[in-house]
Amino acid sequence: MKRLFGLLKKDALVAFRNYFFLIMLIAAFLLIIAADFLIPEKASMDAKVLYTTEGQQSDKAKLLLGMLESEEGAKRADSKAQIIDSMKKDKNTIGIVVRQQNGEPAVEILLQGYENEKSKRALALSFGAALNPQNVDYSSIEDVVLQQSTGINDIPLNKSFVPLMIFVEPVMLGFIFLATLIFMEKEEGTIKAYLVSPIRIGEYLISKVVVMLLLALISTILITSFTVGLQVNWLLLLLTVAAGSIFGSTLAMFIASLFDSLSKAMVWLIVTSLVLTVPMAAYFVPSFSPRAVTIMPTYNLLFAIREAIFPSGSSMIIYQNIGGLLAMSIILYGASTLIYKRSLLRD
Amino acid sequence: MRRLLSIFRRDVKSSVREFLLLYIILAPIVVTIGLRFFIPSVNAISLQFALDKGMEEAAVQEFEKYGRTELLDGRTALENRVNKVDDIIGVLQKEDGGYVVITQGNEKESAKLMAYQILSGMKSQGAERAVTFSDIGAKISSVAVYGASSVILMAILLGGMVIGLNIIEEKEDMTISALSVTPMRRLEFIAGKSIVGFVLPVIEVLAVIWILGLRDVNVGMVLVMTLSSSIIAVIFGFLMGVLSSNQITGIANMKFLLIFVSASYIGAAVLPADKHIFLYWSPLYWSSIGLIRVIANTITWAQIVQYTVWIIALTGLVFLLFKGKIQKGLT
Amino acid sequence: MTGGIEMIKVRDLYHSYNNNEQYAVKNVSFEIAKGEIFGFLGPSGAGKSTTQKILIGLLPLQKGNVTVDGADVRKSSRELFDSIGVSFERPNVYKKLTGVENLKFYSEMFGVPTEDPLKLLKMVGLEDAAHKKAGEYSKGMLQRLVFARSMINNPKIWFLDEPTSGLDPNTTSMIKSIIREKQKQGTTIFLTTHNMHIAEELCDRVAFITNGEISAIDSPRSLKLSFGERLVAVEYIEDGKSKKETLSMVDAGQKQRLNDLITRCKVETMHTQEATLEEIFIKITGKELK
Fold it and tell me: Is B273 helix (H, G, I), strand (E, B) or coil?
């Protein structure tokens, strides 16, 4: 225990001297500023809609226009040309032109050009339904909502970024930091000095994981309390982040153990970190869930962090996530210890 | 000029002999190839439906027209699926022919409505015939715009990193002293070392455009934006070189740059237009916004000139601030 | 002074690293003639490297006058380096490039015709390692590579900083013969070293430097004649035992003793002994050469 404490003190000092703490604070500060002041509270992540009319409108069409008017994020434009102009400037915009055709209202939907067939059909179906409300019959459909009042949709946009920030900063930053830390010692050759001391290689590795954990927890507390406030489930949040940080650290450690220099490990570290951040795309587009993405440990982690900050009642994911990550961490830790022991003895 | 090219050739030769530098040079290309596969899958994002196996074949086919479907066995399986974190609407057919739509409660209202409309529309075909489509012919989606522009920015910055690592090599091998007793001038040394920082990004940018098939992009505009952004990377490269005593500290020092880059790029991509003023101080903001708009095809030459002036002025300021350090570090 | 054109002229040179009165080099003056090998001798930290760095422009000239090849180093242009070669003590080559590539790259920096890299590598015995990366070279090989590199532009003035330190005897004699050959071709050579044997063998003149000051400049021969005591080592048999004694030929008492031995005992061998340059250095400066 005394040995581990000594190692910890040294690693914390090394991390401090290498500005890890400073970087973490600056990053946390920037993220807090962004969440509190720069990102708007309300802004639709959905496509913006611009609509216009051509010619006389029937009552049916007026019904549709009324619906569009009440729609948030929809705006009326003067002409089709104006819509096209705005669409060219903002790719996240689609246009709608309502006109009379053979005495019936018709809708022309202007798209950017890369939308897929399925989405187009879905749009056509909605507008068709809006133009012919008499055909719409929902009487035989029973509505079942599994969880009432989840509130996920009520989170202001700027605050909904917070789980993402906690994912990126403490968890992913630790991944890169730990790898640098290990290779610095490999370069200096100090790791060999441990072989002739009573320190076990396992202790040497754990100490680094703990320093990264410390960094992660401090930054999580900072970011969370200055953005969403103190009313979160701290126990679950910190446990989740801890599991994430430990997983990130042990994974970096494992990759580092396979290479003898940072130059060789670098590309794998970068590729792994890029792959691990792909689930961020699913965070804002929840229907983006190919199997390749959902099986990534960071996918559950991301949503578990959200669940801890904005509980929606499905806390199961938190426990599953913690359990899964810790299990993987133990395997990675064991594997790295073994590989280190072997490679150090061989040199 | 001859000396300049010799220095450039030596840097290239030396760089391809080392894993790290080779990786750095290849990384943007590899990421671009990854993007090439990722972009279509994001563009194909549609609604997701979990359907009960017992549903009529016709209904299943109808849902397949509008989104991705999964067939599951029984109500419990459906509910478990719907309860997962992604957005998926469960649909079940009852004994009496009616339907049950199962949602978790946090899905978009429009997605749920879609399920209703599909079910209702099955009975009254043809309403959607009143809807026609046309498009403005944009070939690139926003995913492609942000993907391509961020890879290009990455290629530019990595060019700077190559310069930095080459300077660190000269420092570690102490070769600068050998060069200072030849007729080579310091300016030739600096210029020769800088070439990599301009040539590498240009080649990589052309490769990125080709791999992603961005045929509508104005290549002249991209190259101007790339070259002006490279000025920033080159200065950062020299700074990294003179401030770091070995490779590891060099890479460790990169993290400072990384914060500026991420803040500038994410800011330019995510923040609403009226908040952009908070980023005007960062030359990397101007390259980010410039590259994003060049790829999206929403920029004019006048704006390119304006952005370039910002970049040169701000980078010049950074250079003046660190001029002494750079000069001292190179002797 | 062998006469002829002065290639290097140093007058009242002072240098302080902290820009104060603590001089690393003070009041140094000397001239080197064309085709001369000039040895700059002294222990480490004596000011040898500082002086050389000022001569080759790695350090700015603070006080005094220095002309190299007729040009004032304060105003000299970069082209002056076309006629200068410098062999550094600590090997400074690109470890990721091969021996040939190192020389090739370096040759491209000059504005004058340069030597063939392979020929130079052969001269220093590196032809087999020519296409190996310098990172794989041993310390001695690196030193030979640096030495070869300094000849690439056929320099008129050649600065050699400890060219043989750490080399084995064979290589050392190879380097020495190259230096002599270059001298025959008219190259002026400024040799910095703390190795007195090399200096004694190669140099036309040497300067002793300690604590930043020159205490003597002359040819090794005259230094020995004026400062070295002439000694005689005598081996003789007295009372049936073989004995050995070294006697000065200047001291009156010892001269008498030598006479005694010759007349009284059976002298087996008798050699006159010259003092080494090293002993003279210690005598003049009161310092060891380390």
Answer: helix
Among A133, A168, A202, identify where a domain stops: A133
Nearest C-alpha neighbor of C201 from the set C229, C180, C178: C180
Q: Are residues A128 and A218 in the same domain?
A: no
> How many contacts does A have with B, using Cβ atoms within 8 A?
260
Alpha carbon distance B303, A18 (integer Å): 40
Same domain, A125 and A188: no
Task: For an interface test with B, give the residue of C58, C100, C108, C159 to mutate (most B CBs within 10 A).
Answer: C108
Task: Give the range of the structural domain holding residue A286, as residue numbers without chain letter.
Answer: 2-40+156-346
Instruction: Note the pLDDT of residue B280.
Output: 92
Ramachandran area for residue A19 (φ above 0: left; ψ -120 to 50: alpha; else beta): left
Through-space distance between the first and last CA atoms of chain B, rounded to whole angstroms: 21
Q: Which of B23, B86, B144 sits opposite A286 (nearest CB)?
A: B86
Smallest CA–CA distance from C52 into chain B, residue: B181
What phi, psi does C268 have (nearest 5°)?
A: -90, -55
Q: Tell me the helices (H) and strands (E) count for chain C, helix number first.
A: 9, 13
Q: Is A189 on the interface with B (CB under 8 A)?
A: no
User: Which pLDDT tens digit goes with each residue over B126-182?
Assistant: 666 678 888 877 767 888 888 899 999 999 998 998 899 899 989 888 898 888 888
**CA–CA separation, B117 and B126 (whole Å):** 13
HEC profile of A39-68: CCCCCCCCCEEEEEEECCCCHHHHHHHHHH
Cross-chain residue pair B272–A149, CB shorter than 8 Å = no
From the number of C-beta atoms within 10 Å of its C-beta (0-12, 13-18, 19+), residue A74 rates as: middle
The residue count of chain A comes to: 347
Residue A35 and residue A63 in one domain: no
- A107 and A28 in a single domain? The answer is no
Q: Are A41 and A158 in contact (CB under 8 A)?
A: yes
**Considering the domain boundaries, does residue A14 fall inside one?**
yes
Both structure tokens of B143: 């995913």
Mean pLDDT value of segment A70-89: 82
Answer yes or no: do A87 and A232 share one domain: no
- Domain residue limits, chain B: 2-38+141-329, 45-135
Q: Is A149 left (phi over 0), alpha (psi -120 to 50) or beta?
A: left
Of residues C225 and C97, more confidently modeled: C97
Name the minimum distance, in Å, from the CA of B190 to any CA of chain C. 14
Domain boundary among A80, A100, A133: A133
pLDDT over 60 (residue A216):
yes
Give the residue-averaged pLDDT of B188-202: 92
Give B-chain residues touching A43 at CB under 8 angstroms.
272
Which of A132, A144, A270 shows the shortest C-beta gap to B101? Answer: A144
For A59, residues 6+ apart whose C-beta sits below 8 A from its C-beta are: none
- % of chain B surpassing 70 pLDDT: 97
Amino acid at B65: K
Are A31 and A164 in a shared domain?
Answer: yes
Interatomic CA distance for residues B66 and B48, integer angstroms? 9
Minimum mean pLDDT among A58-67, A210-219, C42-51: which range?
A: A58-67
**pLDDT level of residue B125 (50, 70, 90 thresholds):** low
**Sign of the four-CA dihedral A298, A302, A308, A313:** negative
**pTM of the prediction?**
0.79
Return the structure tokens found at A66: 């009324």
CA distance A33 to A223: 10
Number of structural domains, chain A?
Answer: 2
Burial of A75 (0-12, 13-18, 19+ CB in 10 A): middle
Tell me the three state secondary structure of residue C129: helix
Residues A167 and A239 reside in one and the same domain: yes
Phi/psi zone of residue A102: left (φ > 0), alpha (ψ -120 to 50 degrees), beta? left
Same domain, A204 and A334: yes
